[in-house]
Amino acid sequence: MKSKTIKVDYLARVEGEGSLYVKIKDNSVVDVKLKIFEPPRFFEAFLHGRTFSEAPDIAARICGICPIAYQMSAIHAMEDAFGVKVDGQLRALRRLIYCGEWIESHALHIYMLHAPDFLGYADVVQMAKDYPEIVKRGLQLKKTGNEIVALLGGREIHPINVRVGGFYKVPTRRELDPLAERLKWARDAALETTRWVATLPFPEFEYDYEFVALYHPDEYPFNEGRLVSNKGLNISVNKYDEYFIEEHMPHSNALHSVLKERGAYLVGPLARYNLNFERLSPLAQEAAHSAGLSSVCYNPFQSIIIRSVETLYACDEALRIINQYEKPETSSVPVEPHAATGYGCTEAPRGILFHRYRVDDKGIILDAKIVPPTAQNQKSIENDLWQFIPKHLNLSHEELTLKCEQVIRNYDPCISCATHFLKLKIDRE
Amino acid sequence: MAIKRKPKLAVWKFASCDGCQLSLLDCEDELLGVADRINIAYFLEASRDTVKGPYDISLVEGSITTQHDAEHIQKIRKSSKLLVAIGACATAGGIQALRNFKDVKDFISVVYASPKYIDTLDKSTPISSHVHVDFELQGCPINKRQLLEVLSAFLHGRKPNTPPHSVCIECKRRGTVCVMVAQGIPCLGPVTHAGCNAICPSYCRGCYGCYGPKETSNTGSLSSRFTRLGMNDENIVRSFRNFYATSEPFRKESEVHNHL
Ligand code: SF4
User: Fold this and answer.
1) Nearest beta carbon to residue A154 from set B46, B95, B203
2) Residue ranges of the domains in chain B?
């Protein structure tokens, strides 16, 4: 009986801390454990007792990589609770700042976290020695995303300008002009990026996932829409709790989200793309086709192409928003709190981020529930490993370990997010 | 003392959101240059290659919330010549230190339907409660310009230039009209450490103190001002209990107004 184990004690190039344990016996996989050992920070607990207006800035601190997503889900949940509708240019500005976060976060993952796997480097600094121009392009692309967030939000990480009802201050048309110039460059750079990532070597691997994403009839989704899947799910966001549950896996410190009676599902770029291809801009659709993708894609390794296509879309969409922008008369609409429960779900770069708040008549939070994308993808990540490893047992230990890490990094997992709600029994080897 | 050979940098993470260490990757124009001059020896968010210690500089993000982490920081201290704590979590316990005002078991039971044994300490504490810290850079998140300044100062063997004055001074320098005087918006600027370049007031919003208290801060007189602006005690408590809730001046001031 031959048995071997693959252990990665600290996964690198993911946000937060996790580890991987795989056990192989007689050429078959007998155990896969993706462990998350970030310490819990109890966000839901201390949101209790805070006012509704504080939720966006507090929730943002769950994740420094996608603070806009946390702010957007929080404000939409509160606006849902109070029956507030934010429309017109204010709504467009929210899409614009979200474009910034997608560009920044996707460029970080494509160039700095994911591409080194495909090309055999430990990190982007080593990769830059052989591909200096490509890495510089990636960094500048990332910077453009950050510039959008900083201009609209005040700073890149934990922006300060987003509030329930709108913004504290809205930009003038003139202030957005320099961004438009940068974005024209970025759109070309994103197009180059899709061409470049299409040339990377992709392992053959497909899986019949249940994809879950927001669906909006007119737009590629950011802040609004119904929750749909390729296997028949079609619900409004406030029905989330009826269809999704969290299971506690004895081996893991975090909860796994599953669809009731159906099991694992996948959120993020792959899911959005498969469910919303028709609503990408023509330029983004064309780039996807030139990169060899049809309107469906079941290979998680190719998520790097889809992130590039989405980056291109975000540049395109940001330019469209800036071109039609006129400064609105007010920077926010009035908000009158009353006792209610509100639901919000938006498309973080890594997939749907669900928030639910129950507030009293003064707008004080009575309870909060937050389900980040990585928690929802955990089960799919483990499933992928179960499928992938048996087909690659001929690889050396080192190569197989690297490939397993790559399978995990396909999801751009953000463990800081996934852990804020940990159910803990830390089991350290 | 200036360091001659290529110095070794390590970046560590405890309970945090990753935002402060991300600031380093957000230096898009400087990153490759920094990597030329510094050997980034341990930085898991960016690289799967790790070089063993000792390290010339360790940047530490996050607060200590578990027994395991309390032991780990001791090891990090031993293998680091200079240890720099970055961000509100590492310098004051961060937003997760709000648990320090409650019984942590209550917190656990709010989040978890059936509270089980959870490996967590009662309090979230800054790095300086556990080991000697050579320098603290405040902010939630830190300012990346200040981070570069700190790195370059230590490389040249000088003291980092991070002004200790208030956010108010930064508003004056920028020429931002005071939002509290002109619009009656409550603002923590007068008691908050500079470093962000007074972003909030320039966006018509009061400072919410995410850079923590400045050295000598008259929180009492600011609270009286807040009361005159119509803020009740509950909201005064909330405004001091955020990202620097357990820092001495903010904690004390919040306790004065807390009647629960
Ligand atoms: S100080 Fe703020 S930005 Fe920095 S790690 Fe902690 S929560 Fe994140």
Assistant:
1) B203
2) 8-155, 167-257
- ipTM of model: 0.94
d(Cα B253, Cα A58) in Å, to the nearest integer? 20
Domain boundaries A43-376, corresponding CATH code? 1.10.645.10
Omega cis (within 30) before A159:
no
How large a percentage of chain B has pLDDT more than 90? 80
pLDDT digits (tens, 9 = 90+) for A361-394: 999 999 999 988 988 898 899 899 999 998 998 8
Structure tokens at B42: 């341990």
Distance CA B223, CA B218 (A): 9
- Give the bridge partners for A21, in sequence order: A7, A33
Pairwise CA distance, residues A423 & A428, whole Å: 15
Interface of B with A in 172-201 (CB under 8 A): 196, 199-200
pLDDT value at residue B155: 87
Q: Please report which confidence band the pLDDT of residue B111 belongs to, taking 50, 70 and 90 as the band edges.
A: low
Question: What is the CATH architecture assignment of B8-155?
Answer: 3-Layer(aba) Sandwich (3.40)
- Measured distance CA(A144)–CA(A159) in Å, rounded: 16
- Burial label, B71 (beta-carbon count in 10 A; 0-12, 13-18, 19+): exposed
Task: Note whether B25 contacts A108, CB cutoff 8 Å.
Answer: yes
Nearest to A23 by CA among A389, A410, A387: A389
Q: Is A348 on the interface with B (CB under 8 A)?
A: no
Q: What is the pLDDT of residues A158-199, one digit of tens each?
A: 999 999 999 999 999 999 999 999 999 999 999 999 999 999
Task: State pTM to two decimals.
Answer: 0.94
